[in-house]
Amino acid sequence: MENALVLRAKEVSIPAYLYSRNIIPAEHSRSAINDYAYFSPFSNERTPSFFVNSHKNVFTDYSSGEKGDAIRLVLLLEKCSFIEAVERLLSIDNVLPDSLVEKPTNETNEADRGKHIITDVTELRHYALTQYVESRGIPIHLARRWVKQIHYSLNDRNYFGVGFESDKGSWAVRSNKFQCNIGGTGIRTIPRPGNKVYLFEGFFDFLSALVHYGVIQPSHTTIVLNSTTNLNDQLIKQWVVDGKVVFTFLDNDDTGKKAVIKLRNAGCTVTDCSGLYAEYNDFNDLIKARI
């Protein structure tokens, strides 16, 4: 077979080929590497693990470990010969329907430059993010109860991360490469009856406590600060007035220790629980050490 035909076959869009087989994306993944996410055609799954980089026209299937170009995909799916795979690709309409094409957006307005703009909020699905969460010792079924997958843009580039929403609708976003707060920073309150308050610095520490105690939700009012700067005088005063007993699960550093002192000096009844992970910087480091 002529090399020119083989090259043409390799250039046939993988999403277009999949569409010809009635396989459509589960979502646009909006990452810098892959822009289409599918349920794997090689397995029966509920979370997309088959990704296509349409710029390089290659696929990666994490459920089977397979990856390659368009010809390789046809060989795997149709179990045919190399020549038949090339002919199959050359026979399809190499055009995606409008519904599967991401519409280009205008360049970021000057007023929005430097701002994180959320473009989508979904259930935690992306393989890179589920791997990241599991690497921190948090089971995915538990994480999905409390966090979301956040897609956002910054200066005309798309990113995604694990997001934890605050009371005011802002998001603390984390991944293995970065962390940011979108919409500012704020506390997350999980109200429960009683006079006890469990206080955490970050949401991975909160999730770590759930893992440590073997529960899926707290039994007492829980507050995740997302930053110790959110431990303000008004919040503390209300706890004192209400007679709350505050159990702190803050970091074993100067910032965490100063926060405990601040609470006690304001008249709060405080139980410092950082001794549970005294050999580590925070609760999550303890959980990670158990993996």
TrEMBL record:
Residues forming coiled coils? none
> Is-annotated flag, keyword Lipoprotein?
no
Q: Under which name does UniProt file this protein?
A: Toprim-like
Q: Which GO terms describe its biological process?
A: DNA replication, synthesis of primer
Q: Which residues form the Zinc finger CHC2-type domain?
A: 41-90
- In its UniProt entry, the species of origin is given as Spirosoma endophyticum
Q: Which Gene3D superfamilies match?
A: 3.40.1360.10, Zinc finger, CHC2-type domain
One example of the protein's molecular function in GO is: DNA-directed RNA polymerase activity
Keyword terms, alphabetized: Metal-binding, Zinc, Zinc-finger
Q: Which GO terms describe its cellular component?
A: cytoplasm
Recorded superkingdom: Bacteria
State whether keyword Zinc-finger applies: yes
Q: Cite a single Pfam family from the UniProt record.
A: Zn_ribbon_DnaG
**Quick one: signal sequence residues?**
none
